[in-house]
Amino acid sequence: MARARSSLRPAGGVVITATNGKFDQALLRQAFGAFPSGVTAFCGLIDGVPEGMAASSFTSVSLDPPLVSVCVANTSATWPKLAPLDRLGLSVLAGEHAPVARSLASKTGDRFAGVDWTATDTGAVFVHGSTLWLECAPFKRIEAGDHEIVVLQIVALAVYPDAAPMIFHGSKFHGIATA
């Protein structure tokens, strides 16, 4: 079946173009929120105390070497604390972890209050009940606009296939219905 060429005009959608190369940030958040993603806890031990944050901009990068990435806002107060660490724990959060994600995303208070966590001897911190744990070593950092792409090399992992992951979509946390 042949398709006619047309300008960007989705049925029922709204098309907004950049003005002077810029978009309204609230609009961009809404647009990016149309893509569902998982939610991770990105954590490590600092002087024996857990420190971490939630990140939904996580993706696999390479199988050989085994690499993943997380995007971190340049305004993050947590990333400068985590960046010097030799090991970081990345937990892919499960459907019931919405309170954990909110706690780790908060700007104030004890982010780990009420969070069931564990740490490795190397200082990687993981959230219990997650679908996946990745112990990572820093590999590369790339400046990218108002964020930094942090590439991490996986040095150990634990998979929990019976735990359904949490999804972040439309600026809300969702669980996955299991069959």
UniProtKB/TrEMBL annotation:
Record keywords: Oxidoreductase
GO molecular function, one term: FMN binding
Ranges for domain Flavin reductase like: 32-175
Residues of the signal peptide: none
This protein's record includes keyword Oxidoreductase: yes
Record carries keyword RNA-binding: no
Family designation: Belongs to the non-flavoprotein flavin reductase family.
Protein name from the UniProt record: Flavin reductase family protein
Organism for this UniProt entry: Mycobacterium yunnanensis
